[in-house]
Amino acid sequence: MTDRMTGVRPISVAIIDDRPASLELLAAALRRDDLQLHCFADPELGLEFILDRQPQVVLTDIVMPGLSGMELLERVVEFDPSIDVVLMTAFYSTESAVEAIRKGAADYLDKPIAPHALRTRLAPLFSRHRARLAALELEKHVAENAVFADMVGNSPAMWHLYSQIQRIAPHYRAILVSGQTGTGKELIAKALHHFGPGTQGPLVPLNCSALVESLFESELFGHVKGAFTGATQDKVGLFEHAHNGTLFLDEIGDMPLATQGKLLRALQDQEIQRLGSLQSRKVNVRVIAATHRNLRAMIAAQQFREDLFYRLSMIELKAPSLLERDGDLPLLTRHFVARFASQFGKSITGLTYRAQLLLRQHDWPGNVRELENVIGHACIMVMGSLIDIGDLPEFIRGKQGQFPVADQPPPPEFGSLEKHERRLLAEALAKVNGNQSGAARLLRISRDTLRYRMKKHGLSS
Ligand SMILES: Nc1ncnc2c1ncn2[C@@H]1O[C@H](COP(=O)(O)OP(=O)(O)OP(=O)(O)O)[C@@H](O)[C@H]1O
Ligand SMILES: [Mg+2]
């Protein structure tokens, strides 16, 4: 997984105070790795710096010769209200405090202030800026690489998902991730865990569809020796393993009803009992449940507990289907080609244009996983450096008939195909110095077809 944004730039802080001793004290109190301090004894110079370099935070004295802190506040707020200005004064008065806040000051402090008190007071402000800088940094990273925590995608639907994950990850206790099969729900769970609160226990997965009914509860909650036949020793359940971390319940729709009841209780009370034990154990566990099934329909059919559903779905994240991700198909295709090419030690550069068109024709009921499989298949089959139609699996090639790959003129709704077709013809002809048989062979069409198409596009050898 891409690392949590470690390269975040430091928060820039301008400190302005006409008394050098006071300035030095403030700077000493705030000297830390992720703060970049800029000190000014002259408020005019300080303001110049602020307008030029836009620090995140300004800490300024009020009573200063030349330019007062109040005036400076007004100028900064007018220039950029996202800069936080903290005013300090040895002449504290409620009136001036009220005036400062009304004018947009982030805080108003009484001088002198002890170093640790200053740090404590400003900590929330700095952490807000830290989060904002990290979010900006991440946004830039996603925009440049079209990857967010191992998810490839640059479509509006995926950006929406990324932003939801970032907003939700630090706060949720339980969450439902829904979406068709193969849409990357597991990757979403990993991202939620990854962007979760700083100090974290592990991400512990349980695939509910892979477990027989009788084992569920001992798996989740553990058991003590002798709890049932075959319980020869104590066993720690997944809830306890996930303490301070995240429990990922995949395919939650396959969890037996009785276990659902116990899960609900564990979520509500944040405590569990090992099977066969009367002792309750406190656990601090966040739960991500994933499903490709329609839980509402399952509730109606009395296969899923409604109370558990509401407990889990206060926040619901929907993984968009591949068809909903405008423009992501080529990105994902390239991503998988690169991965399989390196895995198989082949130098594959991409897909022919018509193979790409064929992929675009498909409706991808298996979503990203299906695309991954198709590209994997093609990367095994391909002989040269470009994947062509013949390298794609049968069920994708079946679509060929519906599409003018070689012989018929393209239907009008594929207007842009004309342009590409002309380019392909021209490129093929150029490659073989205008030799028509050679070009026809390259394009895998007959000479007659080639001539017909050249004529249509007004091309000559
Ligand atoms: N945005 C993406 N970028 C790159 N790979 C992806 C993306 N989404 C999914 N994948 C890959 O597709 C495959 C399927 O993803 P995943 O297992 O997370 O799907 P799922 O939603 O859990 O499906 P199911 O409901 O069938 O369990 C995985 O190999 C995963 O790495
Ligand atoms: Mg899954």
What does this protein look like?
This protein is an alpha/beta fold. The protein has four domains: 11-135, 3-Layer(aba) Sandwich (Rossmann fold); 152-318, Rossmann fold; 327-402, Helicase, Ruva Protein, domain 3; 412-456, Arc Repressor Mutant, subunit A, CATH 1.10.10. Helix content is 46%, strand content 15%. It contains 19 helices and 18 strands. The strands form six sheets. It has a five-stranded parallel β-sheet, sandwiched between helices. A hairpin with a 2-residue loop joins strand 6 and strand 7 (151-152). Helix 1 (20-30) crosses helix 5, helix 2 packs parallel to helix 3 (69-79) and helix 13 packs across helix 15. The radius of gyration is 31 Å and the shape is flat. Adenosine-5'-triphosphate binds at residues 151-153, 179, 181-187, 292, 319, 332, 335, 368-369, 372.
List low-confidence stretches. Answer: 1-6, 404-415
Task: Give the C-alpha Rg.
Answer: 31 Å
Structural class: alpha/beta
CATH topology of the largest domain: Rossmann fold
Percentage of residues in strands: 5-15%
**Total strand segments:** 18
Secondary structure layout plus pairing:
Layout: E1 11-16, H1 20-30, E2 35-40, H2 43-53, E3 57-61, H3 69-79, E4 84-89, H4 94-102, E5 107-110, H5 115-145, E6 147-148, E7 151-152, H6 156-168, E8 174-178, H7 185-194, E9 203-207, H8 216-221, E10 222-223, E11 235-236, H9 238-241, E12 246-250, H10 257-269, E13 271-273, E14 280-282, E15 286-291, H11 295-300, H12 306-312, E16 316-318, H13 328-344, E17 350-351, H14 353-361, H15 367-381, E18 386-387, H16 394-397, H17 415-431, H18 436-443, H19 447-456
Parallel strand pairs: 1-2, 1-3, 3-4, 4-5, 8-15, 8-16, 9-12, 12-15, 17-18
Antiparallel strand pairs: 6-7, 10-11, 13-14
This protein binds adenosine-5'-triphosphate (ATP) and magnesium ion.
